[in-house]
């Protein structure tokens, strides 16, 4: 476990800012308790300072997880968000999408969101914007098109590229 | 009772333990191997190959087992164990022979002059101590003058003459000379191409860390290798949370300001006409103010001499 380097912080912040924009400040500058980002086995954890100090006493090979896993660094140095980051993304998300009940299951099986399944969308969402997908179950993805464009699209066009969803808790057991 | 029939039938079932061949079979119990130098019997070979091979193998194995049983044994909980002699058969070498070391300058000279190498013993006899002492190293003979408690000083010696220091310096000079010669030998034997390559690599590493920031803010070139021996440094895990928060906020504001600088003109897609370019074109490079002056009419134009 170690703090992120500047390059790593940049990658993490850039990815988070795609979803929550300037609300990222609220993650760093919290009124209740100091929180910090920690890297452990290529995974980035968002952890309160008190918890982090407790975690220091655990030997590195024995430490599986602490705090909230936001995502992980790939071998090529890119940062990928995990579904476990949803709590924080949903809380601060700038752009949201609600999908109809008949679109829930396809999304939870890891598919993209089609226009036909779109229930509601935040106004003036630009394209390639990170969005949080709401319904009875949640996940997040990246918009394929802007809100203006979606008006003219046919029902089978992809609206949201799938990134992660709560179905991953069942599908991918490695998710911490 | 006559048991000769039974004995004969029993003997027929089992072959003799001795193997009779034209050329004696060589058993090498050390390798657990037998070599059969007899020529192949063509007739039985052609008649039935499997049977021929089996009889050959049987004979060889029999000879090997005979040899094994004639060896001295030691008893063990698992039964008697034969003690194998060292192997006789020379197995071929797996690796190629090591390349001979390139000769040193002295070796070349000695060869040209026909000087034989004399082996010096590591220990020499000390007459005073009446024992064997090291020629060099701990308590070595070469340090005798430095170590003795009293030393004769020559008549014409200077006032501050120190015989111990003198002897020690002499010894150190000899060591330095030998080391220098070793280096020269290595340099003579080295591949000049490899040497040059190493030199260039060393210079490159040196130049990369020779900026004011020790190369921290340098641009990395495509395909540039990470220099060896430069370690990454991470902040301590148990950092002050306040400092960390400040650093994160600073980084965040830096990312934002960078993004602002990089941001493209948002209305670029909507404006089909590039206004700036159109103005420049219409005013023939004089700018919007010149155009405004033109629309006012002719009264604005300068007249007469200045």
Automatic annotation (TrEMBL), chain A:
<dbReference type="Pfam" id="PF03657">
    <property type="entry name" value="UPF0113"/>
</dbReference>
<comment type="subunit">
    <text>Interacts with pre-ribosome complex.</text>
</comment>
<comment type="function">
    <text>Required for proper 27S pre-rRNA processing and 60S ribosome subunit assembly.</text>
</comment>
<dbReference type="InterPro" id="IPR040598">
    <property type="entry name" value="NIP7_N"/>
</dbReference>
<dbReference type="GO" id="GO:1902626">
    <property type="term" value="P:assembly of large subunit precursor of preribosome"/>
</dbReference>
<dbReference type="InterPro" id="IPR002478">
    <property type="entry name" value="PUA"/>
</dbReference>
<keyword id="KW-0539">Nucleus</keyword>
<dbReference type="GO" id="GO:0003723">
    <property type="term" value="F:RNA binding"/>
</dbReference>
<dbReference type="InterPro" id="IPR055359">
    <property type="entry name" value="Nip7_N_euk"/>
</dbReference>
<dbReference type="InterPro" id="IPR015947">
    <property type="entry name" value="PUA-like_sf"/>
</dbReference>
<feature type="domain" description="PUA">
    <location>
        <begin position="95"/>
        <end position="167"/>
    </location>
</feature>
<dbReference type="Pfam" id="PF17833">
    <property type="entry name" value="pre-PUA_NIP7"/>
</dbReference>
<keyword id="KW-0690">Ribosome biogenesis</keyword>
<dbReference type="GO" id="GO:0005730">
    <property type="term" value="C:nucleolus"/>
</dbReference>
<keyword id="KW-0694">RNA-binding</keyword>
<protein>
    <recommendedName>
        <fullName>60S ribosome subunit biogenesis protein NIP7</fullName>
    </recommendedName>
</protein>
<dbReference type="InterPro" id="IPR005155">
    <property type="entry name" value="UPF0113_PUA"/>
</dbReference>
<dbReference type="InterPro" id="IPR036974">
    <property type="entry name" value="PUA_sf"/>
</dbReference>
<comment type="similarity">
    <text>Belongs to the NIP7 family.</text>
</comment>
<dbReference type="InterPro" id="IPR016686">
    <property type="entry name" value="Ribosomal_synth_fac_NIP7"/>
</dbReference>
TrEMBL record, chain B:
<feature type="compositionally biased region" description="Basic and acidic residues">
    <location>
        <begin position="191"/>
        <end position="205"/>
    </location>
</feature>
<dbReference type="GO" id="GO:0005634">
    <property type="term" value="C:nucleus"/>
</dbReference>
<dbReference type="GO" id="GO:0042254">
    <property type="term" value="P:ribosome biogenesis"/>
</dbReference>
<protein>
    <recommendedName>
        <fullName>Ribosome biogenesis regulatory protein</fullName>
    </recommendedName>
</protein>
<feature type="region of interest" description="Disordered">
    <location>
        <begin position="281"/>
        <end position="306"/>
    </location>
</feature>
<dbReference type="InterPro" id="IPR007023">
    <property type="entry name" value="Ribosom_reg"/>
</dbReference>
<comment type="similarity">
    <text>Belongs to the RRS1 family.</text>
</comment>
<keyword id="KW-0690">Ribosome biogenesis</keyword>
<keyword id="KW-0539">Nucleus</keyword>
<feature type="region of interest" description="Disordered">
    <location>
        <begin position="176"/>
        <end position="245"/>
    </location>
</feature>
<dbReference type="Pfam" id="PF04939">
    <property type="entry name" value="RRS1"/>
</dbReference>
<comment type="function">
    <text>Involved in ribosomal large subunit assembly.</text>
</comment>
<feature type="compositionally biased region" description="Basic and acidic residues">
    <location>
        <begin position="216"/>
        <end position="227"/>
    </location>
</feature>
């Amino acid at each position: 476990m170690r703090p992120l380097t500047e390059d790593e912080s940049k990658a993490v912040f850039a990815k988070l800012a795609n979803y929550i924009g300037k609300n990222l400040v609220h993650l760093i500058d919290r009124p209740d308790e100091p929180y910090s980002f920690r890297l452990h086995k290529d995974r980035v954890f968002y952890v309160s300072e008190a918890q982090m100090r407790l975690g220091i006493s655990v030997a590195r090979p024995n430490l599986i997880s602490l705090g909230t896993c936001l995502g992980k660094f790939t071998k090529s140095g890119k940062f990928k968000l995990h579904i476990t980051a949803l709590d924080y993304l949903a809380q601060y998300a700038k752009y949201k999408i609600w999908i109809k009940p008949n679109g829930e299951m396809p999304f939870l099986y890891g598919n993209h969101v089609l226009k036909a399944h779109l229930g509601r969308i935040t106004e003036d969402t630009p394209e390639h914007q990170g969005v949080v997908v709401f319904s009875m179950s949640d996940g997040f993805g990246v918009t394929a098109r802007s809100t203006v464009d979606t008006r003219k699209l046919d029902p089978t066009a992809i609206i949201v590229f799938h990134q992660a969803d709560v179905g991953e808790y069942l599908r991918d057991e490695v998710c911490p | 009772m006559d048991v000769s029939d039974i004995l004969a039938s029993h003997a027929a079932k089992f072959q003799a333990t001795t193997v009779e061949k034209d050329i004696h079979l060589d058993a090498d119990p050390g390798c657990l191997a037998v070599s059969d130098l007899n020529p192949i019997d063509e007739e039985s070979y052609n008649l039935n190959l499997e049977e021929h091979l089996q009889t050959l193998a049987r004979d060889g194995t029999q000879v090997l087992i005979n040899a094994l049983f004639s060896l001295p044994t030691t008893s063990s909980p698992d039964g008697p164990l034969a003690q194998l002699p060292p192997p006789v058969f020379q197995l071929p070498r797996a690796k190629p022979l090591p390349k001979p070391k390139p000769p040193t300058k002295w070796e070349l000279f000695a060869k040209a002059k026909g000087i034989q190498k004399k082996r010096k013993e590591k220990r020499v006899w000390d007459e005073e101590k009446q024992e064997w002492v090291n020629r060099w190293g701990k308590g070595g003979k070469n340090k005798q003058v430095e170590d003795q408690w009293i030393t004769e000083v020559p008549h014409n010696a200077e006032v501050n003459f120190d015989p111990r220091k003198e002897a020690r310096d002499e010894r150190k000079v000899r060591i330095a000379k030998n080391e220098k010669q070793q280096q020269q030998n290595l340099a003579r034997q080295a591949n000049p191409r490899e040497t040059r390559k190493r030199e260039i690599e060393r210079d490159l590493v040196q130049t990369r860390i020779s900026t004011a920031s020790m190369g921290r803010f340098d641009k990395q070139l495509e395909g540039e290798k990470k220099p060896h021996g430069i370690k990454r440094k991470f902040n301590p895990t148990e950092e002050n949370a306040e400092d960390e928060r400040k650093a994160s906020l600073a980084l965040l504001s830096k990312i934002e300001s960078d993004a602002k600088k990089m941001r493209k003109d948002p209305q670029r897609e909507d404006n089909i006409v590039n206004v700036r370019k159109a103005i420049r074109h219409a005013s023939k490079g004089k700018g919007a103010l010149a155009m405004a002056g033109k629309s006012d009419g002719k009264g604005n134009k300068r007249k007469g001499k200045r």
